[in-house]
Amino acid sequence: MCQLWGIVDLVFKVYILVMIVYAVVSWVPSLRGRWSDYLAMLVEPVLAPVRRIIPPLGGLDLSFLVVIIVLQVVDSNIVQAQRYTACFFQ
Q1: What torsion, rounded to 10 degrees, do the Cα atoms 6, 78, 43, 47 define?
Q2: For the residues of 3-68, what is the DSSP string, one character each?
Q3: What pLDDT does residue 26 have?
Q4: Structure pTM?
Q5: Which residues is 60 bridged to in the sheet?
Q6: What is d(CA 79, CA 66) in angstroms, rounded to the nearest whole number?
Q7: Which residue range forms the structural domain that includes residue 18?
Q8: pLDDT per position as a tens digit, 24-54
Q9: What total of structural domains would you count in the chain?
């Protein structure tokens, strides 16, 4: 079970990194390429529902910030706690 929670933790961290890269690519158009379409396929399905609730304000998209904060809170409060419990209290 310890390894499973380690993998879940890694998935959360990689997804947050993918979101940050996608945000940077959206700010710097010269970095865009075919690979950024694949990032969009990973990130946009999560951001779209948040954008319906919190629309962009003056060109600033807060959905990235909201999703990253939620992912960080879930990772630190649930995933890390479960991983600690599974790895050290077997």
Answers
A1: 180
A2: HHHHHHHHHHHHHHHHHHHHHHHHH-GGG-SHHHHHHHHHHHHHHHHHHHHS--BTTB-THHHHHH
A3: 86
A4: 0.86
A5: 57
A6: 18
A7: 2-88
A8: 998 888 888 889 899 999 999 999 999 999 9
A9: 1
